[in-house]
Each structure stands twice: as structure tokens, then as C-alpha cells.
């Protein structure tokens, strides 16, 4: 992604090759601020407090968190502590555990003195792999958009939920990668951007990066999508996922399930973009088995915004004394998903579909 003419990934190493630089996404869309992570605790805080977010980027940050931990204590005890500190930061996104397991597989057999360089090397590889996977995923998804354009001969309207773009990954995005690839190929697209309460990742992050890239888009209230589908104003939905079961159930930001129900009722194709590390091959039933993160009620009762004089502040939107609950995710059953878009192609949301693309996991 280019910002003011400069290309950025969402995570990179500083000039010394050790400090891990990230974008503080809690400051978007009104401020672009980068932060340097210098310790295990910094990495854990960045994940837990959502300076970084999105399953692939959480995994990449966790990988570099293990590298930062090795600078402090590369012993077996230090690795075990780092794994646990990072693992508990966000319970739903499976990429977190996947990345930590990848790091441990490389580091555990090595002598302590060799672990720092190996940790930074594997973390860099995880970032490169994520970028490459999402670029390939985007190309497969762009073909779907191109087919819709060929059939309808007009701008294709795509609805997405939460942020599953560049900011949720190392580069390209998952749900937005097909949109960027199609747009760059000259296919006319327009994106309906769900605001995605309570943290407004759609309004603040998806809209921000679509704006940077020049993709036409319109921000809508979360409950508008069904109305748009009823009136033929949505050609397809593409969302991301924080964890997908081996049976094709999809766990994504709260509200995704309702979009899938509306899409099913109105015969609107509902696709999910996911790089393969987001598949949890140990889980079959998403509703029963995926842990759903419950976040602070303050995210529900308060909101950040910019005043007319340009100040960025937080305000309370609920009455004093009213209780609030903040479930971070919901599960969309495979029966509501038209197809899964991966770096190996598009498949149906089923055990057979996933095994067809990933036979080594059968």
C-alpha cells in the first residue's frame, strides 16, 4: 500500500534490524502514527490492545514478538514464557497459535546462542509468506469479480464487513485483495463498507485504505446491508476470517453471520478470503468449538472521533448505569458460504472442498 507516495507493509524492521515497527491502528483514520516495539511485552500489548489486528497480522506480530523475546531471554524457559504471554493475548484468531508453533518448531532444537538470528529470520519468512499468499488469493478472487462484471457489464458492488484488507495482514489483505487486484486491472468496482461496530474497523480502517488506494466506496451502517441486497444493490459479499474450521465454518467479526443470512435470502454470493494459516484443521464445528473473545464493554459504550475543530477525542454514547457486553466474533456456518478463496484457488466451504486444495492435510 502506498501512503503519500511511500510504500508500506504493516510490519517491518527498523534500521537496526531488531526494533519491530508497526502502524498504531488505534490512531487511524485521522492520524498515521508508527510505533517501535522493543520487547516481548511491547508485542503482547500491541496485539491485545489492537494496535495491530487482523488474524494474519496478529500472527506476524506474534512471530516478531518471539524474536524480541529471544533478545531478552533465549533459554528454553524464556521461550516457554514468551509463547504463553503471546498466546493469551487474543483467543479467537488461529494465526496467532500457528505463528507461535512455527517459531517454536524452528527455535526449540537450536542452541541458545543461535536463536536470536533464527527467530528474526523465521519471522521475516512468515511475513513474506503472508504477503505472497494474499497476493495469490487476490488474483483468484479478482477472477470472480471479473466474471460478475462480464455477465452484468457494469460496476460491481461488493459488500464487506470489518477490515480484512492491507491493514489486517502484512500486505494486500484477504477480503480486499481481490478488490485491489480487480480495481488495478481496470474492472469497475464499488465497495459498500460496513462501519463494523463497536470498534468501527470498517469506517476507520477499510474506508481509510480504500481511500488511499483510490477505490470507490461508501460507508454504511451495519444494518444497511440487508436492505441493499433486497434492492439488488449488492452483487457479492467478500469477508475475511479469523478462524475457519476443517468443515468450512467461518469465524469473523461480530455481525458477519447476519450478513451471510441476508445474502442467502437474497441469492447474493457470499465469499470468504483466507490464507491457509487461518484454517484450524483441529476444529470441526465452529459454533461449538471456536472460543469467542469477549472484549471490554468500554468499546461498546464509548467511541473515538474527530470534532469539527480537528481534535480527536473519546465520548460516551450510552447512558450512565447501562450495562453493555462486547462479543468480538460470531460464526457463519459453512452452509451459508458460497466459496472459500485461498492462495491455492477457490473451493466450496466443506471438508471435501478444503481437502481438495490441501490434500496434505487430509
Quickly describe the structure.
The chain is of the alpha/beta class and 362 residues long. Helices cover 40% and strands 19% of the residues. The chain has helices at 40-48, 55-72, 76-87, 94-107, 115-152, 176-184, 201-213, 225-230, 256-265, 286-289, 298-301, 351-357; strands spanning 2-3, 6-7, 11-13, 20-23, 34-37, 156-160, 189-194, 217-220, 236-239, 243-245, 250-253, 270-273, 279-280, 302-306, 312-316, 329-332, 339-342, 345-347.
- The low-confidence parts are none
Overall mean confidence score, pLDDT = 96
Main-sheet strand order equals 8-7-6-9-12-17-18
Give the topology string: H per helix, E per strand: EEEEEHHHHHEHEHEHEEEHEEHHEEEEEH
Radius of gyration: 20 Å
The largest pleated sheet is described as: 7 strands, mixed
* Helix proportion range: 25-40%
Content of β-strand: 15-25%
Structural class based on helices, strands and sheet pairing: alpha/beta
Q: Termini distance?
A: 36 Å
Name the CATH superfamily classification of the largest domain.
Translation initiation factor eif-2b, domain 2
Whole-number total of structural domains: 2
- CATH architectural grouping of the largest domain: 3-Layer(aba) Sandwich
Amino acid at each position: 500500500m502506498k501512503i503519500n507516495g511511500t510504500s508500506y507493509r504493516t510490519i517491518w524492521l527498523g534500521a537496526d534490524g531488531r526494533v519491530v515497527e508497526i502502524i498504531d491502528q488505534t490512531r487511524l483514520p485521522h492520524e498515521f502514527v508508527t510505533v517501535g516495539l522493543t520487547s516481548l511485552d511491547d508485542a503482547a500489548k500491541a496485539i491485545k490492545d489492537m494496535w495491530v489486528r487482523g488474524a494474519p497480522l496478529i500472527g506476524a506480530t506474534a512471530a516478531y514478538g518471539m524474536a524480541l523475546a529471544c533478545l531478552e531471554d533465549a533459554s528454553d524457559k524464556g521461550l516457554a514464557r514468551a509463547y504463553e504471554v503471546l498466546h493469551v493475548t487474543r483467543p479467537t484468531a488461529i494465526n496467532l497459535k500457528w505463528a507461535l508453533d512455527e517459531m517454536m518448531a524452528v527455535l526449540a532444537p537450536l542452541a541458545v546462542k543461535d536463536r536470536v538470528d533464527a527467530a528474526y529470520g523465521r519471522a521475516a519468512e512468515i511475513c513474506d509468506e503472508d504477503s505472497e499468499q494474499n497476493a495469490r488469493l487476490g488474483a483468484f478472487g479478482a477472477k470472480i469479480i471479473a466474471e460478475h462484471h462480464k455477465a452484468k457489464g457494469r460496476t460491481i458492488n461488493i459488500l464487506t464487513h470489518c477490515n480484512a484488507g492491507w491493514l489486517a495482514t502484512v500486505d494486500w489483505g484477504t477480503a480486499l485483495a481481490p478488490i485491489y487486484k480487480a480495481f488495478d486491472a481496470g474492472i469497475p468496482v464499488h465497495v459498500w463498507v460496513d462501519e463494523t461496530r463497536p470498534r468501527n474497523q470498517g469506517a476507520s480502517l477499510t474506508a481509510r485504505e480504500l481511500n488511499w488506494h483510490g477505490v470507490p466506496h461508501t460507508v454504511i451502517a451495519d444494518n444497511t446491508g440487508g436492505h441493499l441486497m433486497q434492492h439488488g444493490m449488492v452483487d457479492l459479499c467478500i469477508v475475511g476470517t479469523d478462524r475457519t474450521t476443517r468443515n468450512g465454518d467461518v469465524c469473523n467479526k461480530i455481525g458477519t453471520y447476519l450478513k451471510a443470512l441476508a445474502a442467502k435470502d437474497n441469492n447474493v454470493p457470499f465469499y470468504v478470503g483466507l490464507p491457509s494459516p487461518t484454517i484450524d484443521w483441529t476444529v470441526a464445528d465452529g459454533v461449538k468449538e471456536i472460543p469467542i473473545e469477549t472484549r471490554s464493554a468500554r468499546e461498546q459504550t464509548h467511541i473515538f472521533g474527530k470534532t469539527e475543530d480537528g481534535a480527536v477525542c473519546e465520548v460516551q454514547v450510552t447512558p450512565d448505569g447501562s450495562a453493555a457486553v462486547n462479543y468480538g466474533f460470531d460464526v457463519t456456518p459453512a452452509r451459508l458460504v458460497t466459496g472459500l478463496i485461498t492462495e491455492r484457488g477457490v473451493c466450496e466451504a466443506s471438508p471435501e472442498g478444503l481437502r481438495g486444495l490441501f490434500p496434505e492435510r487430509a
